[in-house]
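User: quick one
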Amino acid sequence: MTKPEPKIAPSVQKSKRVLILALLVGVALGIYFSVASFADPDSFELFDNSDINPVVAAIGIAVWLLIVPPLTWIWWRTVDEHEKDAYREGAMVSAHFYLFLVPTWWLASRAGWVPAQDPMIVLLIVSIIWSCVWLYRKYL
Amino acid sequence: MNNRLKVLRAERDWSQATLAVHLDVSRQAVNAIETGKHDPSLPLAFRIARLFDLSIEEIFNDEA
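Assistant: Done. Structure below.
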């Protein structure tokens, strides 16, 4: 009996598994922050800039710096060249968006037209643009 | 870049997913190459050529 052919390539299977793991880490981090915020009403929400408990901050930083980078690197090593190109294009577009957004917001804020710049909002916008271009180039 | 990948795949009655497994890439990558949205790297072009037992020039054509 011949071995059934896999439905997707082994490297694609691996990259999907790593991506799902990274998403689970992100969801776990989000839930952790939400629960920590709920437990301490004087603490913070996900994109709030108020003071936070140093232990909560240390755990968040540790996850972000020790778990996410290796996962990103492993994922990058497993994806095929088409997805790498799509990801690179997303990075290029979002980097240029960042280049134009930050000074514009900064100047507009100094002129009193808009509220002060929030790095987490900038990060969110840049990440959304990166992801949209990446997925568009991959699937469309 | 023009290519005969879709024809060669059809001759073997392979789906894009089957070809993707043979080349160890995603189905989206095969689709992007077939539709000319993605030009494969030299290593991938060689893998494609070896798979169909043809030269790269017999599959890919850079003339408009």
